[in-house]
Protein 1
Amino acid sequence: MAIELKIRVNEKSWSVDAAPETPLLYVLINDLSLKGPRFGCGLAQCGSCSVLVNGVETRSCITPVSAVAGKSVTTLEGLPEWYAAQKKLAKSPALHPVQQAMIDEQALQCGYCFNGMIVKASELLSKNAKPTDAQIRSAMNGHLCRCGTYPRIIAAVKRASQAMTGGVQ
Amino acid sequence: MKSRRDFLKSGGALVVGFSLRGVISAQDHSGAVAGPPDAKQIDTWLAIHSDNTATVYIGFAELGQGNSTALLQVAAEELDLDMSQIKTVRLDTNITPNQGGTYSSASIQRGGPQVRTAAAEARAALLKMAAPKLNAPVEQLNVNKGIVAVNGSPNSRVSYGELIGDKQFHLAFAGTVPVKSPAEYKLVGKSVPRKDMPAKVAGEYVYMQHMRVEGMLHGRVVRPRGQGAYGDGAKILTLDESSIRDIPGARVLRKGDFLGVVAPKEWDAVRAAQKLKATWDIKPTLPGNQALYQRMRSGEAEDRVVTNRGDVAAALASAAHTVSLNSTCPYQMHACFGPNCALADVKPDSALLMCSTQDVYGTRGGVARVLGLPLNKVRVQYQDGAGTYGHSCYDDVAQAAALLSQLAGAPVRLQFMRWDEHGWDNYGPAHVGEVKAGADASGKIVAYEYQGWHHNWANVETSEQLGLSKQAAEWATGAAQMVSQNCGGMYDIANFRLVNHKIPGLLYLKGAWLRSPLDLSFSFTSEQAIDQLAYELGMDPYEFRQHNIKDPRWLGVLDAAAKAARWTPRKAASDLSKASVVTGRGIGIGTHLASYGGAVAEIEVNKDTGRVVAKHLYGAIDAGQVVNPGNVEAQIGGQLVQAASRMFKEEVKFNTTNVTSLDWASYPILRFDESPEVTAVVVQRLNERSSGAGEEVMAACAAAIGNAFFDATGVRMHEYPMTPARVLAALKYA
């Protein structure tokens, strides 16, 4: 049965009317009208639905909405604010450095998988500011891209790492 | 022309007409004028707005390849606008011109000249309007960023917006105004950044999957998991509608053997589709992976000699060196990363349809047919989805959404589940190839023959087949005649023969064009045979090819790829190592239709585990005049990675009743851990006609990978994907 659930997404509280077992993804898309997380497989195989739950990359397509009650969900849209809070910046940037780096590398083709790519890379850099090539590949390995943009994503993660650690802005 | 004028006034707001929440008015299709708009009118192609910006109406879909940016560059170049002043709209059968489908990498090749000429004519018309206002003859006017000024009197000026802002040109598109020469280009040939990326990284971009209309229901199709033989459509045996009675608002919808569910909430539709109890009559008529190639090679086929020059048999008999090479190449799938999605609002006498089709006009025909509506009562709007790479399920999902909406009496948004998309795709057909080739003692190829077996593209979508009992049918053209240039056509060979064997496809999987259709199969086979000839002659494979090519453009891409990879002459497999992990390099050339592709692959083979990984792939494309080299470099990189995925990972698995590759575990694709480095080279030829660049280096890459494997191991792979099991078997029995 549908019940009223309170969830916290991108630092805002929402009250949603959904069955508790409803995957978080459907709530984010249909009730909150978010465009970042998106359906790819519904099986936690591809990563296109990824969000951060308390800073940890999570597949929203298999996560019941009830499981995030009391936790903080961050979607692609909320990454700049999430980054500002982490870095204690007075003002949040227009884009997270990973988002900016994806543009700078012209990494996207269709872009459908980039929600997950950006979310996962942001999580990685929050834990490991200067990942090696092997660490990037390993961290990102659960995220698929059909257009074949992996090389540019790796380059973009390195670029973002540099920007975040005071290198090239 | 009411809707058209309203549209012009709003500067695009009607088509893009969703609010911030992605909701459009369901009324947009009522009273609209059915397209396509008249291609002989300049107003069909572009509009100038009061704020001195322009909208260009382009009949090609943005699929992530960047064509919307590149075609705007072409238009901005001729109009002397900068890129910030120009935009386009998404395709719509009532708004955008019919330039044919977005396939065969044709956007720039076919669309470029039309957009360029229309823009040049509009500019000429605007100058004619400006002349009396500025009291100067047209010859003395110049344009910069849409401001027309008199030469030498920069203050005597008027903007495009002031001249015509939001009014129509009412001008016939004559196609006679001269266009700029490449020497005058300011924008064409520059790597202008893609316009769609900022919104895509920010989570603001509206994909098809985001579209919603008021009062709509969520739909899902219910089908057997994985398709059976194309000609033996599944039939419903039993259906228990009460099995979803507990799901709020869920309804079962059925027309013939077409079955679906709708519900107000999306999760309820997903649950209902999974829970609905239905049994199916499925015939065990597929060959399964085990018997596939044997059935293809031994069954009936329609044989057609595509090319026959000289006397191949005689030349082979007298050649100093001959090779014979066979290969078997699997079905592969589009595996659209975001399952196809469509939104249909079907009324008793009209329909509005949104989906990610590569051909809005083609899709309109199919939707009209399943709905029983006349063409001019169906409006199709294109909305970007995930990349399709050819004829993925977009027509099927559109027809299914249309049927569900018609049955429900309400707008329906239908998204395929992963198993629908994987299991009911139109797969790139399997192929069996056999090559014979011979060279004289000097290293000149004197004879070549390619024989290829495959079936054709499907012409009837699953939804129409199930819902209207329409008999499966294949195209009359298409793959029926595909054996082509990639089969040795780039070499200068006196005795040359190509034979196409078209297999009747109804007892196989449903087929369609998949990015660089059949080319990977052709080149994997043909270019390994060419390589083997070089080996027999003791020649370096790059030098052997140079020796046998006359066409400077084929030589150009071959040289460009070799140079990028710092190729040094060495006979293939002349440096074999006893180590467990060995490396190899290979070279190959190929294309899809009109362009030229060359590639070098550097790979690593683990002889103990059978794992093969591409370490670095180099690709060069000559596509004539390249409007946006940055876009083409990105396309080359994507093609190299996707080709590696297809050579190492991808094969549609099926048994005698159905496809069993239903998700990313049962149809693996390349991941980050095995992603190669890529080097892309654009061979720019500004004075040549533009040709395609979205798929023209994949064949060369497939060939280079095959040849690299031989260089590393001294063993030829005769089948792909080169999975560890196949590699171990090949090494063991070599």
Protein 2
Amino acid sequence: MEEAATIREKRLYTVALLGNPNCGKSSIFNQLTGLRQKVGNFPGVTVDKKIGKLKLTDETEVKIIDFPGTYSFYPTSVDERIVVQTLSNPQSPDYPDAVVYIADVTKLEKHLLLFSQVNDLNIPLILGLNMADIAQQEGLEVDIKLLEKKLEVPIVMMSGRTGEGIDGLKEQIDLIFQEPAKTENRTPFYKLDASESAVAAVANQYYPEANLYQSLLVAHHHEWLSPLLDEQQAAISKAAENEQFVSLKSQVRETMDRYEQFIPIAQKAIKKSGKSENTLSERLDSILTHNIFGPLIFWALMLMVFQAIFSWASLPMDLIDGFFGWLGESVRSVLPGGWFTDLITDGIIAGLGGILIFIPQIAILFFLIALLEEVGYMDRAAYMFDRLMQRFGLNGRSIVALISSGACAIPAIMSTRTIGNWKERLITILVTPFISCSARIPVYAVLIGFVVPSKSVAGGLLNLQGLAFMGLYLLGILAALVAAWIFKLILKTQETSLLMLELPEYRSPVMRNVLLEVWEKVSTFVKEAGRIILGISIILWLLASYGPSAAMQQAEQTAIELAESQQLSEQETEDLVAAHKIEASFAGHLGKAIEPVIRPLGYDWKIGIALITSFAAREVFVGTMATIYSIGSSDDEFSIKSRMAQERHPDTGKPVYTLATSLSLLIFYVFAMQCMSTLAVVYRETKSWKWPLIQFLFMSGLAYLGALFTYQLLS
Amino acid sequence: MIAQAGTTKLLTDISIGQEEIVARFTNDLIGGKLMAMGLLPGTKVRVIRKAPFGGSWYIKAGNFYLALRKGEAASIVLK
């Protein structure tokens, strides 16, 4: 009651959006908040916290948190654990003032389990019955009055798809904050037995504000719940032992007890008129998950996805490239010459261009993946490939991460949070960066363009360069699988691995959801990876522009004299000066320092510089090559290619870029872990530097050996 | 509820298309999860497809669809 009095004094109320997976919660969240949403982290863990703002009236605004979908308060994955962690602790910073529980009205019975658990927390609660449009198509009649009476909460019929009922939900949320007492002190569904009460009482000492059911949840989950201290966990374990409290048995009893109470209510309130067996999904799945056609369709879809990335993205990428080229030129022409202008044009503008150029590809890939996910296809892919994935120590759900990493490993690694088993999740995280991401594309494009002739084969159907591209992708996939298999043999775990995946009915996609997802992923990429890439290009610019001053002046002098003796044009002189200066610069020193190590791979110090800078982010390679070969500000791959062809070893006079060197470089880029952002994300997800370090070492080790083998075999 | 040894019929024993009713689970962990997802004793189940090479089972439970590994399906005892 005290809580009720203070609730209106708080400035910003927090509303939690809860529900089962596939209840359409995200649609409702998107309807309520639109673009007024952002992604944060729950304290201490890396689970995404989607927060949105909703304006109710001119004065009131509420914060809405979209919690991960979960079936019950007995979670299997990291994603689901956060729900219990937050809701069992009234002092948690994200503890809501009210809960909006979204249930799929066409499957109300099973969606009421978590609802009944939320009910027992005694937080002001609204029940949103989603998919009202589909219920109508199926001929469902819902007795709202009866449900409201039996469940003691306000109920809104709604559809995240059509927007029906959203205004009604907003009104209810507003009402709850006007008269909170109305929905409080509801009857709990579940009555604890003697042993449960005794252990809950012990747990309650550490969570004094928790109610009885929350204390029971703490008792169940004390082994992993934070902020419980070690000795508090031990005390609860001891109490559980004394009281013969067996968590699993108690869970099953609680679940059965709840179902027994609400199933009669649901059956009474929902009437089905006529037969409306929805078998469209079954009919579609008789082809889409067919034992032979299913995988074939999957691979055909993937081929189309990658085809789309290449063909649709090329125009916007050219435009972005052109724009930044133009911007650099314009800035250079406006600002006076000097180090500051160089920093702006070669450091910052070139760096920004290097990030933004990937947006079309990433956006297209995420658009298509979000589309496949939205219609329900990804769950089918997980079902079809679970057995194969298991052989390599992965989970059917890993397929989503492996596909996503074709765009970028960062969001792919974040998507592994739905994998409950730690070993399977860890292996997925470790091998995902082997899949060729979009950052490798420019490197592949330059090198393949250089060594593989653009020739049609198989009667004009296929292009030799395209085949080479595909070969590199397949090599990445193979490396991922073999590495996964090795990790499977090394890593040990006692944890049970589960699939248990609900396959939702196929639904036509809601474009708002898909586009918001793309928007969120792209902005994450720009923020997470962009910062680092930008930072690196500035550092790179510094290293390449500066060096021991005497040596730099000497280099400039030599170059000018050389240019005069050869009667070079002004442009050629500038290029020559730049090339000599980079050799004398800090970057040049670095490249020379590692030359002995990379010589067996067929690389000289110039490639060495590109390798070093690529360890921050691969896409820097092309830009670095452009700087080193002094092709000025142009990142144009054609000019880089022709410049590469001219490059000779100073002592032997033979071309640097032979077939052996180029292939060795390609192999290196397929395998090497050259992305600081990915390592940072792996650290965040595994909460230890051990795994990113291991990942870095085995990937780069494999890259070195692979490149060494390739070069020595071919040269 | 208590089935006699040898006569226990598991979900993995029935053929595709056959509809049966769940009696109980042989494993509390898997049973607990399945119940949370809505598959309970008393729920009608039907096998829709078995993926090849010992792969997953695609089943219909009540009015929703589930993919289960063979071991998970084998912990469901039928009436």
